[in-house]
Amino acid sequence: MMTNRESETTMTAPFAPVLTRAAEAETTSDPSSVMTLLADSDHTGGRLTSYRSTFAEGAVGAPAHLHTQASELFLVIDGSLQVLVGEEITVLDAGDFLVVPPHTPHAFAAAPGRTADVLFVFTPGAGRFDYLRLLGRVMRGEADPQEIKDSAQRFDNHYVDSPVWREALATRG
Predict the structure, then answer these.
(1) Could you give the maximum distance between any two Cα atoms of the chain, in Å?
(2) Alpha carbons 44 and 97: distance in angstroms, whole number
(3) What global pTM score does this model have?
(4) How many Å apart are CA 172 and CA 91, to the nearest integer?
(5) What value does the mean pLDDT of the chain take?
(6) Angle CA(153)–CA(143)–CA(27) in degrees, nearest 5?
(7) For labelling, which of 71, 73, 150, 160 has a CA lying 20 to 30 Å from the CA of 84?
(8) What is the mean pLDDT of residues 137-159?
């Protein structure tokens, strides 16, 4: 966890403009999604991390989790994203924007029968690209799932149980 002094230093660190060309962006994938890595915290003075995910039809994105430091922003570019926020499930359609504050359980998946193309932004940033790379390796069977659990503090990604989300996933078919 960052102290106030570390947070002030990280959040005020100067940084150069960040331009990520689509043709040159690093991607990582799992069997049902492709993540395009756009800007990580080490390039933005700690202010944000951003990536774009495209989800296959009905693909499950992330289980219920929360962040203790970061707010997570979702902008649906195309398709529809089913989202848990707290205990409520809603569907975001193209053009919809959502901000989930710290300490709020949330989860997401492409809406049933739909694909989704989503821009994600975390602020402040938390070096999430290494987490996304690890997640891809685990989903492809190249790394042990325990590595994700062991990285919770490092990446500010804390999994929680959500009966509401489990039920929603079970009814997807």
Answers:
(1) 49
(2) 22
(3) 0.89
(4) 14
(5) 91
(6) 85
(7) 150
(8) 91
* Residues 106/72, Cβ–Cβ less than 8 Å: yes
Q: How far is CA 41 from CA 1, 55, 74, 122, 123, in A?
A: 15, 24, 17, 9, 9
SS (H, E, C) the chain: CCCHHHHHHHHHCCCCCCCCCHHHCCEEEECCEEEEEEECHHHCCCCCEEEEEEECCCCEEEEEEECCCCEEEEEEEEEEEEEEECCEEEEEECCCEEEECCCCCEEEEECCCCCEEEEEEEECCCCHHHHHHHHHHHHCCCCCCHHHHHCHHHHCCEECCCHHHHHHHHCCC
Report the distance separating Cα 127 and Cα 105, nearest Å: 20
| Alpha carbons 153 and 131: distance in angstroms, whole number | 11
* Euclidean distance between CA atoms 153 and 49, whole angstroms: 16
pLDDT at 12: 60
Residue 29: its pLDDT value, please?
86
Residue 11 pLDDT: 57
Digit-coded pLDDT (tens) for 79-126: 999 999 999 999 999 999 999 999 999 999 999 999 999 999 999 988
Q: Angle at CA 11, nearest 5°, toward 5 and 17?
A: 155
